[in-house]
Amino acid sequence: MSRTEGKHAAVVSIEGRRDVKPTSSRVGRTLRITGVTVALVTVGFAVNLLQILASPVALISRRLAHSLNSYVTWFGWTLCQYFVEDQDNVKLTFSGLDELPEGESAFVIANHAFFGDFFLTHAVARKKGMLSYCRYFLKDSIKYIPVFGWGMYFCNMIFLKRDWQRDNRRLAGAIGLYLECELPIWLVSHVEGHRMNPSKRLESQKYAKAHGLPVLENVLLPRCKGFVSTIAALRGSHVKYVYDITVAYHHRVRGFLGTPSLGEVLSGGLDDYQFHAHVERIPISQLPLDEPNLNKWLYDLYVEKDRLLAKIKAAFEAKDKRT
């Protein structure tokens, strides 16, 4: 039995704890989308303003600036979670949470299935007191998106341009800021580099076959360079664990990995969806030291993640047959 098979053997209780409510009317959905959008944009602008006002504090104390920024950011993330995680019709389950202590810094990796994967990552972070300290590796263009991109820029997300020489310097500098002051942090990375979809899966599988790498069905092949550099930077620091989060989605009609649209998220039209997040805590000290073996370790992890998702898929489908 592999390292994770034992943990996955009793992995998933996906039985929803809530009854499904009837889908709201078109007018009701439109009104909700409008109200939620106005609320998010208004709070976003307020967060931006507070972030700007707090930025000079970094000249005095980076730790204090990080704490203030994280506190302000918490309001925005909490509002987002309220409109998704806290709604009565959302069927969200977890496994592996008992492994995670409260308030522990970590390097978090997760598979990437749709734009709202952060809702599930944040649901885990929220339960462990780390929601305000989530910092993501993001495409550089995102920081130019009004309100939301600006907020991510001010809270020191790590922006990358897919130019490895430049990105490696940025990555080292950004991570160094958190490590120097031993700031509480969840560094979150989607190491696949792209969201999972049929065309990206085909590209990933073709690349894997051509290079003798694992051919995966439910996830994309991970990209190793950024992961290896991040682990190298974190060794010996206060960030001592990798949290491996596996997110899964199921739609009553579209099936496994059927993910919601933005309209469905904003309107609360999630009655037909099931969500699951599994988390595993892995000591960085147990990871291979050399790059080739660390690459292999990451590929092996994604093979196991692919198998886990197949088990979750079977559990979702079995539940559908019973209902």
From TrEMBL:
Domain of life: Eukaryota
An example molecular function term from Gene Ontology annotations: 1-acylglycerol-3-phosphate O-acyltransferase activity
Transmembrane segment boundaries: 31-54
Positions of the Phospholipid/glycerol acyltransferase domain: 106-228
SMART domains, sorted: PlsC
Stored InterPro entries: Acyltransf_C, Plipid/glycerol_acylTrfase
One annotated Gene Ontology cellular component of this protein: endomembrane system
Keywords annotated in UniProt: Acyltransferase, Membrane, Transferase, Transmembrane, Transmembrane helix
Entries under Pfam families matching the protein: Acyltransf_C, Acyltransferase
Family: Belongs to the 1-acyl-sn-glycerol-3-phosphate acyltransferase family.
Protein's recorded name: Phospholipid/glycerol acyltransferase domain-containing protein
Organism: Paramicrosporidium saccamoebae
